[in-house]
Amino acid sequence: MAPTAQSPLMEVEGVTVRFGGLAALSDVGLSIAPRSVTGLIGPNGAGKTTLFNVLTGVVRPQSGTVRFKGRQLRGHRQHHLAGMGISRTFQGLNLFGYMSVLDNVIVGADPLGRSRLPEMLTGLGRYQRDERELTDRAMSVLEEFGIADVAHALPATLPYGLQKRVALARALVSEPELLLLDEPASGLSGADMADLAATIRRCSRTMGVMLVEHHMDLVMDVCDHIVVLNFGQVICAGPPSTVQADPAVAEAYLGTPVQEAAGD
Ligand SMILES: Nc1ncnc2c1ncn2[C@@H]1O[C@H](COP(=O)(O)OP(=O)(O)OP(=O)(O)O)[C@@H](O)[C@H]1O
Ligand SMILES: [Mg+2]
């Protein structure tokens, strides 16, 4: 069921993923509402990244369905996502080390763009115009994130907090309707964390956000709705107050201090 009266942006039903004998996800169902933040939490190994990989077509589930804006996603590929209105960040940075910050962000806007080889070779006007437009868009996102001055630097030369911003800028440049964030706060310090919370809230004015995170303060602060996974199963779903009060959630985390589990 949708967490709000609006029809959901994404709906997951009965998703099961097995890796050999291990059920990484068992009959998982959830929905993501537009213009809201849905948290996905659970101890290490609970299946959060696997679920992201299902939503983005990296992992094919053995059973179950995923619908985006009412249409079933089947056999979709990662590089089609930006065109469909879905963006993600990765656990870790996943930036291209040999490309400048600006080019990393341009790739987020146009992951297929470099394959328009014929237009490139003939130097047709449309290609050049598109290139300029993409560069302008990428630069304005870098400006929004306060990192336009390092547009031509290689990511590895920047402090970690700035690299995380580049990863987020890359996900946002395509102006997605659904943004999937896998541990965006890992490795961030207090000030960067506050910035991230503000960015997530700002994003949720125009898009649905799904947030995987171990930092509970951030999760409870920014999420409208939270889904808790444990051993591949949804054990609780509801607003932050419901999740915080649920004894099954506390039990799932026993032996896995939530803050310590962050940043892996
Ligand atoms: N490609 C794979 N092959 C085999 N097992 C896998 C694969 N990917 C994930 N797993 C296993 O599936 C389970 C779920 O892993 P997943 O990475 O989804 O957890 P997670 O909730 O993201 O954990 P974390 O909080 O540590 O990032 C784990 O037991 C993991 O070892
Ligand atoms: Mg993970």
From TrEMBL:
Top-level lineage group: Bacteria
GO CC term, one of those recorded: plasma membrane
UniProt-recorded Gene Ontology molecular function terms: ATP binding; ATP hydrolysis activity
SUPFAM superfamilies reported for this sequence: P-loop containing nucleoside triphosphate hydrolases
Gene3D superfamilies according to UniProt: P-loop containing nucleotide triphosphate hydrolases
Protein keywords: ATP-binding, Nucleotide-binding, Transport
A UniProt-annotated Pfam family: BCA_ABC_TP_C
TM segment ranges: none
Name of the protein in question: ABC transporter ATP-binding protein
Origin species: Thermobifida halotolerans
Lineage: Bacteria, Bacillati, Actinomycetota, Actinomycetes, Streptosporangiales
